[in-house]
Design goal:
Elements (H helix, E strand, L loop, with lengths): L9 E9 L3 H12 L8 E4 L41 H15 L4 E2 L4 E6 L23 E5 L2 E10 L21 E4 L14 E4 L3 H10 L5 E5 L5 E2 L5 H16 L7 H5 L1 E2 L2 H8 L5 E3 L3 E3 L2 E3 L11 E3 L2 E4 L24 E2 L2 E2 L5 E3 L8 H19 L2
Parallel strand pairs: 1-2, 1-6, 2-3, 6-19, 7-16, 8-9, 8-16, 9-12, 10-11
Antiparallel strand pairs: 4-5, 5-6, 13-14, 14-15, 17-18
Length: about 375
């Protein structure tokens, strides 16, 4: 059954999928459709305690009515969901249904710590005594985890970003006497009642949480650049252009941007209310953190104050791709990113990155999962 826990030693499969979020389940579905057998042909290793990908960790106040970007997993339509139900619960249940419906071989919790080249003779031999070959771009890969080692011909990496919150280095941060947390650790606005909260960051999560926190206490919004709100729905051409811009960065080996950083922030009824009420009035980035708050450089005063007392700094500063386990393969280019051709790593076609760069959106994750399997079918001939 998907999600069963087994004690594992060394296992060999054709393809290992790392991560069971939207992109990982999409890839697993298409591997099964391509004829690979669960557990012997392919396996999904997921470090989460249960189904749902990053959705299972979302804050309790995020209901389905407020959730944006849920897209159907391949082969299973989204059921009618209660708009008042917590997204962490509803989406996790939907992901679990998908795993069961298609018998996806998900092992959890399994934490992958490294992916490296397998040593000659390290994997078990075939019945005829000859080592199992890998694809034309190399031999077997060893996927090392806390519950064993998987030897495989290819890896579909779908680890997303949730495990890698970005905390920018900032002068004085260690001296702050108040509370600091990343949006990853946010649970409910009520936790901040009676405290002044400075929200740092110009993305969607910053706006969503500002609007919630401002309903129970005082807030200040700080961003590096003025936020750009999009007043109209993006048409297909605009979405395609935005994805193309992110794709160009990954093809050049540069760290990927988020699609929303290109498209701008959606103008919803809630954001209109926030703008009208002053909640979304933005200040430029402060110069320094001090024990009791933050200070601005003289050039920023006004509109910023010289000093602002704060009880909480909430860093809505985004995430970075969780790729540390791939470091032994030396995939990064001089620009700091990984040179990509769609989901395929140009330097090593055995590695497919799904939910990375232009495919980081939920729709893009589905597409990249399908394309990754097409790439591997050509590479490995299955």
């Amino acid at each position: 059954m998907p999600g069963r826990r087994r004690e594992l030693g060394a296992v060999r499969v054709d393809v290992v999928v790392v991560g069971a979020g939207q992109a990982g389940l999409s890839a697993a579905y298409h591997l099964g459709r391509a004829g690979l057998a669960p557990y012997t042909g392919f396996v999904v290793l997921d470090d989460a305690p249960g189904p749902g990908g990053a959705w299972q960790h979302r804050w309790d106040s995020l209901t389905m009515a407020r959730a944006h970007g849920l897209s159907a997993l391949p082969g299973l339509p989204i059921p009618r969901l209660d708009p008042d139900e917590r997204a962490s619960v509803a989406v996790s249940a939907y992901f679990a249904d998908h795993e069961r419906a298609f018998g996806l071989p998900v092992e959890r919790p399994v934490r992958v710590v490294s992916v490296r080249e397998a040593e000659p003779g390290e994997a078990d031999a075939d019945d005829d005594g000859a080592p199992t070959p890998g694809g034309p771009h190399g031999g077997l890969l060893a996927v090392e985890a806390d519950r064993g080692t998987w030897f495989t011909r290819a890896v579909v990496n779908a680890t997303g970003t949730w495990r890698k919150p970005f905390w920018p280095a900032y002068p004085g941060r260690a001296a702050f006497r108040g509370r600091q947390l990343h949006v990853r650790d946010f649970r409910t606005a009520a936790d901040f009642t009676g405290q002044h909260v400075v929200v740092v960051g110009g993305g969607t999560s910053a706006v969503q949480l500002l609007l919630q926190i401002a309903a129970v206490t005082s807030t200040t919004w700080v961003t590096r650049r003025p936020p750009a709100f999009v007043h109209a729905e993006l048409d297909e051409d605009a979405r395609r252009d935005a994805v193309a811009e992110v794709d160009a960065r990954t093809r050049a080996g540069l760290p990927p941007q988020s699609v929303v950083s290109v498209t701008g922030l959606p103008m919803t009824p809630e954001t209109r209310t926030g703008l009208a009420g002053g909640v979304l009035d933005r200040l430029p980035m402060f110069e320094r953190i001090v024990p009791d708050g933050v200070t601005w450089a003289p050039r920023d005063v006004p509109p910023a104050p010289e000093h602002l007392a704060a009880d909480v700094l909430l860093w809505a500063t985004g995430f970075r791709p969780g790729l540390d386990h791939l470091a032994p393969l030396r995939l990064r280019a001089r620009g700091g990113g990984i040179v990509m051709d769609g989901p395929q790593v140009v330097a090593d076609a055995r590695i497919q990155l799904v939910g990375y760069g232009p495919s980081a959106s939920v729709v893009g994750a589905n597409r990249s999962g399908r394309q990754a399997v097409r790439n591997l079918r050509r590479l490995l001939d299955f």
